[in-house]
C-alpha cells in the first residue's frame, strides 16, 4: 500500500511529559484518516511535527516515502497543506487577497486557479470584505482555501469543525468529501469527536497519552460496532455446532460466552440448543456505537 504519511516510534518529550510516546501510524494514499483522541492525547503535537513546526525527540516519519532526516523533505512538504489550530489568514485582507498572499509566499509563478478555489470553498461572493469580518465558518473555509493554494494532494486539518455551528460543520464535511473524491486529496483530520469524523473517515487512528491504541479502517470499525447478541451458555462447543447448523454468523468469546451477529429466531435457537444439551444462561443485545467503542478503548470522559 502507498502511504502519504508514516510514523515510526515518533516521540516528542517536553520537560515534564511525553506528548507523543512511540507513535506508529500510516495514512494510506487517498484516505480520509481520522485521528481521534481525548484532549491532550497528542493530536496537535503529531500535526505540528509532521508540518515541520517542531522537531521530534526520537523516532521518525516520512511523507510520500521521504524520511524526515532527508533534505528533500522540504520539497516534498510542498505537496502538503495544513490548517493547524487557528487558520493562518490575514484578517485585514479579503479572501482573494489572502489567497494571492499565499501564492506569493509559495513563490507560485501565476495566480491561476485562485478564483476556482474561492468557488470551491463557497467564498466567491465574499468580495472585498476583510477576513476579520467573516463568520467563524467562513474563516475556516478560507483557511482551507489558503491551505489548498499550490495544489497539495495531502491536507492536514486540526479539529476543523471546532466552534462551527451545525451548518458550518455540514459545509466542512461536504468540502472534505468533495476534495477527496474530485481531487483525490488525502486527509489527516484530528478530532476528539468520533461521531463527527465517522461521517467522512475511511481510516481511524485512536490515540491516547501519545500512543496509538488502535488503527483500523472504517469497515473494521463498523464491524466492531455491529449490533450483536451476547449469549452465555453452559456448553460453547454445543452452541457452535448448533449455530453452524442454523447457518448463523458468530464468534466464541470464552468457554461460556459467544456473540451472534445475525438476528436468530430465538424460539428455534432455544429449541435446537435444548436438544443439543446446552442451556442458555443469559442473552442480551449489545449495540456498541462509535462513541462507546472509542470510550471502551481509551476510557474516561471524552473531554478529559
Ligand atoms: P487537544 O484536543 O486539547 O488539542 P491534543 O490531543 O491536540 O489535545 P496536544 O496539544 O498534542 O494534545 O498535547 C499533548 C500533551 O502535551 C498535553 O499533555 C499537553 O499539555 C502537552 N504539551 C503540548 N505542548 C506542550 C509544550 N509546548 N510544552 C509542554 N507540554 C506541552
Summarize the structure in words.
With 304 residues, this protein is α/β, with parallel strands linked by helices. It folds into two domains: 3-222, Rossmann fold (3-Layer(aba) Sandwich); 227-286, Alpha-Beta Plaits, CATH 3.30.70.100. The protein is built from eleven helices and 14 strands. The strands form three sheets. Strands 6-7-8-3-9-10 form a six-stranded mixed β-sheet, with helices on both faces. It has a four-stranded antiparallel β-sheet with strand order 2-1-4-5, covered by helices on one side. The protein starts with a strand and ends in a 6-residue tail after the last helix. The model has no long low-confidence stretch (mean pLDDT 90). Adenosine-5'-triphosphate binds at residues 14, 17, 19, 37, 39-45, 192.
**Cα-atom Rg, whole angstroms?**
24 Å
- Head-to-tail CA distance between termini: 35 Å
Strands, total number = 14
| Residue windows where pLDDT falls under 50 for at least 5 positions | none
Approximate shape: elongated
Structural class: alpha/beta
* Biggest sheet strand line-up: 6-7-8-3-9-10
Q: Tell me what portion of residues adopts beta-strand conformation.
A: 25-35%
Tell me, rounded to a whole number, the average pLDDT.
90
In total, the number of domains comes to 2
Summarize this, please?
The chain has helices spanning 43-50, 73-76, 95-106, 114-120, 136-148, 166-182, 194-197, 218-224, 236-245, 266-275, 290-298, and strands at residues 3-13, 18-28, 32-36, 58-63, 66-67, 80-83, 154-158, 186-191, 203-208, 211-217, 228-233, 250-252, 257-260, 280-286. The chain contains eleven helices and 14 strands.
